[in-house]
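Methods: example folding runs. The two proteins below were folded one after another, and each record is reproduced exactly as written to the output file, sequence line first and structure-token line second.
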Amino acid sequence: MTSKRSHQSHFHRSQILRAQRFIRLNLAQPLSLPRIAREARSSSFHFLRLFQAYVGETPFEFIRRLRLATALRLLQEDSEVSVTEIALSVGYETSAAFNKTIRKTLDLAPGGFRNLGKDQQDTLIYDLTQPRRLKEAHVNLTPDFEAVTRPITHYVFLENRGPFAEIAPPLWEELSKYTPRLEQRHIREYLGVSGIDKSSPGEEAMIYQAGIALAEIPGDLPSPLQRRTIKSGRYARFLLTGPYTQIWPAFDHIFKTLAEANVALRPEFCIENYLNDPRTTPEAQLQTELLVPIQ
């Protein structure tokens, strides 16, 4: 079993390395998630989460970091080349997009970077080119999964797009304004749902929904709540005990576990099922079902 897991780990790391090499060689080109996954010879639906599990950042974060490092190196090497020319040459759509990125990441303008001493410039560029350090966060997660089948679910939700860990907390806070207006006796579960829209570029492809499973199809809903049906299907069920901040590192661990066990995944959204009321349950005792769709 150990040998099999080692082989699967090597296989998936090879996929990630192919993706990273493709990105490095094509930084100036538009890079969609399906195209990167195809070059890695992987299914695109869960590739983002597999990449993050092994690398410690999403493909979009990896691209953003390398584009910025490449642009800074060009700024350093030739003071006569315009910022716009450099930005476009490494894949930014506009010079404004590059300016926004460098300000957000380094709190500098392009001109400010050019005015730094060479040693300071070299340090900033070096830091950006280094692989992210994988943080082995301790999570209280069941080591093995249980295969379960969930029934059809009537789901009412709010949706946002972007990095899951960033957009989920404010979305749940927003949802809390509308839950008192629903029939409380019909509420069955509180579910977070996350997945990928392969047709959208960049981090807009990352969809997160905060919502409620109801006992029956709802009638009129207060705006901006949406409704949909989550189909019945099989899931790998893990149980997380502890703070909600551990959900995203737990998913990283789960995707590595499933990949190394060669578990075939379905192209459906992952689910977080919140089993306790956080208003009355101590944070260390909170329990969350983490469900990944499997064949």
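Second run, written to the same file directly after the first:
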Amino acid sequence: MAPHTYLEQGLSVLRARLRTPSSIPGARQEIRPFVTLSREAGAGATTLGRELIPLLDREFRDPAHAWVFLDRDLLTQALTHHQLPARLAEYLPEDRVSEIRAAIGELVGLHPSLWQLGQKVSEAILQLAHVGHVVFSGRAAHLVTRALPGGLHVRLVAPRDVRIARTATALKLSREKAEAHIDRQDEARRRFVRSNFDQDIEDPHSYDLVINTDRVSAASAARLVVAALRERMAQAQPAPAPLVTA
């Protein structure tokens, strides 16, 4: 499948931003907005991401910083930024099989260790979050960026039957294969967060907003996220310095 136009444009924008220093040494660091989406398999992160981008561009208008949605392209972007072959992204899906393959690849000298690759992805996420105007999907971005004040962290959930039906339709699978697919995805993501961050991906306390996408449409969810991010940015901005009178 060819990349969506907005992703092609967005990745070009990100590459340009990453080549340009985002701050001047000694200057106060500007707080920049970003969103992380953690999701159950089939909960609709990609659909929400597409709805979010135009709303965020309108709400947080900045001609120099168009919003970008990074999901499956995140690994490629991270690896490219760190001068590693994009094909190494196959060693970093959120599953146990990749750990075995990655270990073999490391032993025969195909690539750095899985830990080093994971670190590079996390570094890229953190740098892009500092730049701002990015919606991240997956890769525990909510934990990587939790110290940054401009982020809004969202968890997407939906009933199991709904997610199975969506996956079967989207991937043209039987119900049985769709069920197995979401089980693998959910377990892989739980294991990834547990093994790398010692956290529970399903812990609601890790998020600012948990949305049931069976009850809330993608358009409504996008409006909720924008409103919550607007409030987050208002709270995160430093108070003006008091006036000094003679």
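Comment on the second run: The chain has a mean pLDDT of 77.
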